[in-house]
Protein: TlpA family protein disulfide reductase
Organism: Spirosoma profusum
Amino acid sequence: MKFTPYLFLFSLIILRTAKAQFCFTPERPQTGQMVSFTYTPQCTPLDADTTLEGRYVRYGTPAKMHISLPTTVTLVRQGGDYIGQLYIPKKDVMGTMLFFRNSVQTRRTDLNNGLLYVIPVYDADGKIVPHAVGGQASVFTRSHFLNETGTRFDPNWVVTLYQHELLMNPDLQPHYWSDLLAAQIKQRKPGYGPVAKAGIESYIASRPAPTANEFTSAALLYESLGDFPKATAMRERMKSLDPAGSLVQKDRANSVRNEPDWTRRKAAYQAFIQEFPNSPHLQGLAVVMTDGYFKNNDIAGLVKFIEPLPVAQTDLSVLNTIAFQLADEKRSLTEAEFLIKRAISVFKGQPKPQRPGSTWEKDQQTRSRQLMNTYARALEQQDKFAEAFPIYKDVIPTDDVDNSDARTNERYLICAIRTNQVEAVRPYIESAVQIGKANIGLKTALRDWYAKQPGNNLAKADAYVAELEADIRADKRDELAQQLINEPAPAFSLTDLKGRTISSSAFKGKVIVLDFWATWCGPCVASFPAMQQAQNKFQSDPNVKFLFVNTREGGPMQRIYNFMDKHPYNFVVPVDTQQKVANAYKVKGIPTKVVIGPDGRVRYRTIGFSGDPEATVEELALVVEMLKEGK
């Protein structure tokens, strides 16, 4: 048999796939056949492993790489070897690539030194089929197969594969020219830039009528080389070739997105859908417009926009977010109900994918709960408690209170109270309180309901809730006890916004909570509603004092007055203009909260705001109570 150069080169490729570790029968498999293979892990990274599995992808032409879906193949151990079988479909497949891994510790792999293990396809004459070699390179460059392994492909090997494919099948150059050049650019060999540019120009010049895809590929290659003028020139040639094509649509879609004037953006969007009614950019633009109507507070316009919107362009997540915010803020409730009902209708009409992922069912259940939770919130805020209650009952994981949400639990209880069904949900609600899945609103509602029951009063209700919380409060107290400090509390004397002198000496024997803040500090301001709640909790206690020390303001005093005038906080605000008090109390950043005990010593210090107002109130209240008890 004559041994041609391309056969020699291909033989080198096959030899590099570690025959000692991997072999298969038939030796020259064809489409429609079952291939049996043997893998020997000896002398590989999996030599000592016993729980092995194979992962494989089938590959074809670059245009058919959508078939390259990673799949597991079962291995059967026979002595020191592992046996497996793979079927080669009759259509579109030019080969299969595999790697092997520990099925439990999946990052333990044998990748055949980065080349993977290959089963190429042959024709009826026993010749390697076109794309059997180039397709291997496409697995590395056009699929995500290696992502599972956390490794990257070797551009030198990819270039070798592409070059061998084109040596054997020169007529396949239109399939591989851009991928080969891209791989050569990644090699970054000396002089690669001019060589790659020459390759682009040569190929485009050789084409009697370059296609839009070829111009796009050329533009991308020029961009990767940093030659943006030539990339732009290629795109302009493509636009002239296809005035309604993807690049023109992309530019027009971007102009809609970037239009700052809302009225002009709406007009630009209408012009776009008239000109490109089937554009793939319509879905993204629909999200932009939905968000635009909401941000411009045109809720009636949003409803008119959503009502005729095709299902394919309706983003459930965006609708759910907007509907929930409207419902939570108790505004445009009729519109919020319409939006969430629309989202639920679209969700229920979605077909099951032909190849659903392993978590599809679970993900669908999560999405359904999110949508229905918003629907219940919209109903509840309209006082439609009887309609909201059964929805909350389905949404809440009543058999898994550990994974419940405190705010949703609160709304569930409120609906139960308003529909006289508290006894039915009481065991669940009590469990939520006991494990810390209850916010202040829930506990207040539960206490007030309990106080109204026959034979009860507010004192008994307080004791009832306190008993439910006893264990978790004890655990939290133990945790906070470990965080208590014991440092001297420097004396201070400041003037507050009302001109009064605020002196530490006036608060001897009391617990003092100092909150260091500034008007420009976002987390400081965000924590104020919670701090108001904490202050309210002790408003009748003469032995607890809250002081909100403005420091590091860096601006005119009037800014502080303006801020307090705009907000309904009844805070005492001493002003630390020289930051002397902040420095004395070791304030490294704001907000910082410092608690001084009755003994006049600093016992607690925390910086920042977690974003959880309930936790902030609970933590400060526990610290204050512990210090009052002499802890």
